[in-house]
Amino acid sequence: MHPQVTPFFHVASSTWSYVVSDPGTRAAVVIDPVLDFDYPSGTLATTAADTLIDHVRGAGLHLEWILETHAHADHLSAAPHLQRALGGRIAIGSGIRAVQSHFKQALHLEAGFAADGAPFDHLFNDGDAFAVGGIPANVIASPGHTSDSVSYRIGDALFVGDTLFMPDSGTARCDFPGGDAGTLYDSVRRLLELPRASRLFVCHDYAPGGREHRCETTVTAQRQANIHIRDGITRDAFIALREARDRTLDLPTLLYPAVQVNVRAGHLPPPEANGVAYLKVPLIPAVDAAARARCHRPPGQPGA
After folding, report:
1. Cα–Cα distances in angstroms (integers) from residue 184 to residues 2, 96, 163, 164, in the given order
2. 10-residue block means of pLDDT along the chain (304 residues)?
3. Candidate CATH numbers 2.60.120.200, 3.40.50.300, 3.40.50.1000, 3.60.15.10; the one for domain 4-296
4. Residue 267: enclosing H or E segment and its boundaries?
5. In terms of pTM, does the model score above 0.90?
C-alpha cells in the first residue's frame, strides 16, 4: 500500500520531518519533528513544528502517532508541542531505556528521572505492528548508530532515521553511546533485504557537492550506490571504514542540549526554584580522556 508522504526540511539542522497519511481514512503520523533552538541565546521556537501542524489541519488529517526514530543528538524534538495541538501518542524504540540510563549518569540528571522509558507514551519492540488508518506498518529495530534506533515501515515507505543517508552520503556514525559499526552493518543489510522498490526516506541530508537537498531514495539505489555499504562491501571492510571515519568527527554542536530534551520525549528538564528550566554541559579538562569517555560512552564500552 502507498501512503502519502509529505516531507519538511529544517535548514538549521539539515533534518527531514515527515507527515505520513492514509489517503482513504485521513489518519496520519508525524516522524521526527524539530523544535527550533538557538543555542547561544537559549531561545526556543516552534516555527518548524507549526508548519507541520498547519499541514495536518489544512489537509484534514487525524494525527495518531508522533514517531521518533531515536533520541537525536543534533536537534530538539517538538513532539510535545505537536501532541498538545493535535493529539497522538509519542513513541520510540524500547532501546531508549539504555540511552536514558547512560545520560542520566553521564549528565547527572535529577534523581526523579527514572530511565524507564517514560515520558514516552509507547515503546516499540522489533517486529511490533501498528497501522496508519488502513495501511499496515511495522517496526524494525535498527541499532548501530544508537541502541534505540528503529526504522518504521509504513506500506511501501521505509523511514530509516539516521541509519542510512542518501547513497552519496553513506551511513550514520557509530561512536555514540550504544553505537557499534558491526551492529549497524547488520541492521542496514537487514533493511536492504526489503523489496527493492521500497521507498526509503532519510532523516538528514547534507547535500554533498552542493547538490539540492533530497529525502527519498530506494532500496535498489542504496544497494547499488551507497558509498559505505553498497552490495559487495563486506562487514569487516565496513567496520574498518566506519570506525576510521568516526575518529575524525567532532561531536554534534547540540549533543548535550538535544539528548537532555530528547530522552524526555521532547519535554524540557523540570524548572528550578526560579521557574526556569536549564540544560547542563559537562566541563571536562582536555587531558581527561577517561571523563570524556564516561560522558560519551557507556561504562565498559571501548572508545571509537
Report:
1. 28, 17, 7, 9
2. 96 97 98 97 97 98 98 97 98 98 95 95 98 98 97 98 98 94 98 96 96 97 98 98 96 95 97 95 76 51 30
3. 3.60.15.10
4. none
5. yes
